[in-house]
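Final report, closing paragraph on structural work. Over the funding period we assembled a curated collection of sequence-structure pairs, and we close with a single example.
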Amino acid sequence: MQSPEASTAATPTQIHLALANFADEVVGTLARLFAYVGALALFAILALAGLGQLPDLRDDEPAEKPGWAEASRSHPAFALSRLDSSEKTASYTIFRHPEGGRRDVMRWTGEADKPVAELEIYREGSEFDVTRPAAAGLAVQMGLGAATALEQAGLIDTKFGPVALFRPTGTADGTPACLGYLKRNEEPGLQISGFSCQGDTMPARRAAIACTLNRLTLLTSGNEPKLAELFAHAELKRRSCDAGGSADWLLGAANAQLRGAL
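Its predicted structure, as stored:
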């Protein structure tokens, strides 16, 4: 019969089992600990990645679309018939828009290459904003600040019909300020605009603009038969230039109110 001391004493087998169980618990605990730490690290990585994207989410705006770009390989589609052989040829720049628009810009410069006149023919594409005011951007085109207010300065008669004139607001009557002009056509979608500082008097400057527009000719219409038709009809109304500014080119007073389409 075993003594109580012998019965309560642990055998080597029991000790080994106990140590094995303890080791298993330690290994299991360490495994769970590593898994927990790994999960925390994964969440931290995902959180950092998410935070890195927050500025993009906060500024979730459409990517800026490509705008106007100079088309150096395009050929001029318009020209001005010359008054004399000594007349200096204007610079001619063509801009295209990915959505179909095209702008042909002729510019004349004087002393120190200072712009004295500009003519732009804008063939509208899908980029054209019908809600934008017709004269928006004309002040910038004239070399003035974008915030410069313009006022109506009457109408002139051209082969394209009446053309609206504009000048900086507050210009005193009789002051030979540079004049802006604008003519829009609905079909085909076409806008003719620009400015002129040519001439010493307001009537002379009006006449200079009318002469420029009456001399505007179409070289090629491309695949736009309506454009060719527009210029063909306009040629039937062409008038000769009068540098003195004949009165029959002026419609009403200098600040006449515009009516109807420009």
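Residues 244-262 have pLDDT under 50 and may be disordered. The radius of gyration is 39 Å. We thank the funder for supporting this effort.
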